[in-house]
Amino acid sequence: MTGLLIGIDIGTYETKGVLVDTTGAVRAEARAGHGISAPRPGWVEQDAEGVWWADLVRVAGELMEHVAPEDELIGLGCSAIGPCVLPVDADLNPLRPAILYGVDTRAAAEIAELEDRIGRDEVFRRSGNALTSQSAGPKMLWIERNEPDIAARTRWYLTSQSFLVAKLTGGVVIDHATAGYTHPFYDLTEQRYSGAGLDGTVPLEKLPDTAWSSEIAGTVSEAAAAETGLPAGVPVIVGTTDSPAEAVGSSVMAPGDLMLQLGSTGYLIRVVDRPVTSEVLWAAPWVLPGRYVLAAGTSTGGTATRWIADQLDLDRGDGDAALFGRLMELAETAPVGAGGVLHLPHFSGERTPFHDPDARAALVGMNLGTSRADVARAVCEGVGHSIALAFTALLAEHTGRPRAVAVGGGVRNGIITRTISDVTGYPLALAKTLGAAYGDAILAGIGVGAITEAEGASWPGFLDPVVPGHDDDAETVVLRHAHDRYQRTYRALKAAGEGADA
After folding, report:
1. DSSP classification of residue 495
2. Apex CA 106: angle with CA 499 and CA 166, to 5°?
3. In sequence order, what DSSP letters do the residues of 471-485 get, joined into one string?
4. What CA–CA distance (Å, rounded) separates 266 from 410?
5. Closest CA to 437 of 87, 6, 115
6. Inter-residue contact 283 to 292 (CB < 8 Å)
7. CATH number of 3-244
8. Is residue 400 packed enough to be buried (19+ CB in 10 Å), middle (13-18) or exposed (0-12)?
């Protein structure tokens, strides 16, 4: 009999699942695509039942087709985009579409209200974070203030994976790593909720209980088994959001490890052994007890490369791999530095280090000789510049030189990884794992006692690393000069926009 583990991750645009044995070998994979909704400027939403749960049902069913009669499914882990805000009633019925993570910027007024209530210094002392669009607390308050009928019917404010776990097991629980983003309602040092001074905002009884990601939340219920094809009684771990799960799936688990997630957005996690706070980064507990993280993120990553591929009419209907392959072929015919064309990929504002929801994308430096290849390369380099800037902010807030691992679809874009490495002077290990779903399987294996943490960390494999150029290398000099232009251009456009508003 072979013990098997399932990991399922709900991403921004795609759901992925893996069936893994207890040596880390992948028995099967499954995928399902989906989209997001942007009903108003600054609003980004997703349907919890129609996307999250429907995808889990589909992917779980496909994976179970590869479980032989002599096999035993011993554990399941879920992750999903986050931190999201989903109000549900007592029967776990969603009451509105989920409000997504930092790309949704609707709660500016609620951020101001919460800061006025207890002061910015107290927000930072309590949560280890300033309030930004990445904070779930203001979005919960947005519902309380703007949708009172929904708020009155809300029994729980869940996030993506806590909704899925509740649907699977009936247990309502959230991991500490995600609960840490409900600022200012979570005390980072105490690792518990706190509503001191916030009466009349978000009732704490609407927040789920907390636990560590690898702990068992419950078992697959009979009702969930009938819907998904999963066996009833299989242990389900608490899980986490997609970025921590992807970190685990890339061997980023211990203090001294750092992940650069190159996906639809950029997200960076540095594991540390004590709480470290910064006004430009996010601090939270880690998925395993006794560890913490500093995190950074960009608002756009792979979505920018998809945008330019669409504008350049590169889609032939033969899949994303072929599409992005054509984009790379085109972009690599342009010189490093894209002939002076510079791209700011701020299509949905920008997170680290600017935390500016009003930032907008730009292409600057074009002339009549600018080619399609120049523009394609400029967009790829611009994504690299945005992530390199967030990476630099992350490195500046803690001593030591961490091991940097790049993960996600962006590792196949050599222009992005080269830009990050040359600008920062940092070598990048390139993980070739199956991403967050693989990390979910590792956490499930740890949770049910089938593997140790050290064994899980040994599962992922790697591609050849990216090594930065020397300081006097001509192409490295070009990229570093462009990086300086990137920052100066943002500031100039910000100033010009403020002047226009005046």
Report:
1. H
2. 155
3. TT-HHHHHHHHHHHH
4. 9
5. 6
6. yes
7. 3.30.420.40
8. exposed
Which tokens belong to 375? 């523009």
Q: How many CB atoms lie within 10 A of CB 417?
A: 22
Tally Cβ neighbours within 10 Å of residue 27: 17
For 381-390, what is the mean pLDDT? 98
CB-side neighbour CA atoms (13 Å) of 496: 8
User: Residue 210 phi/psi, 5° resolution?
Assistant: -110, 150
Strand, coil or helix: what is 91?
Answer: coil
Residue type, 335: P
- Asked if residue 195 has pLDDT above 80, the reply is yes
Please report how the helices 474-501 and 372-396 are oriented relative to each other, as an axis angle in degrees rounded to 10: 90
Tell me the domain boundaries of the chain.
3-244
Task: Classify the C-alpha dihedral 126-127-130-135 as positive or negative.
Answer: negative
Element (H, E) at 391: helix 372-396
Strand partners, 15: 10, 32
**Confidence at residue 502, expressed as pLDDT on a 0 to 100 scale:** 35
To which H or E segment does residue 430 belong?
A: strand 428-431
Reading the block at residue 420, the tokens are: 């990050």
User: What is the 8-class DSSP label of residue 291?
Assistant: -
- Interatomic CA distance for residues 240 and 466, integer angstroms: 29
Q: Establish whether the linkage from the previous residue to 275 is cis, with ω within 30° of 0.
A: no
**Amino acid present at 303:** T
- Angle, nearest 10°, between helix axes 414-424 and 372-396? 40
Average pLDDT over residues 32-46: 93
11 with 27: CB under 8 angstroms?
Answer: no
| pTM (2 d.p.) | 0.86
Q: How far apart are CA 348 and CA 278, in angstroms?
A: 23
- Residue-wise pLDDT for 101-121, tens only, equals 988 999 999 999 999 999 999
Geometric angle at alpha carbon 383, from 268 and 437, rounded to 5°: 45
Judge residue 497's burial from the number of C-beta atoms within 10 Å of its C-beta, 0-12 exposed, 13-18 middle, 19 or more buried: middle
DSSP letter string, 174-221: EEHHHHTTSTTSEETTTTEE--TT-TTSS-GGGSPEEE-TTSEEEE--
d(CA 84, CA 114): 18
Mind listing the pLDDT tens digit for each residue in 160-181? 999 999 999 999 999 999 999 9
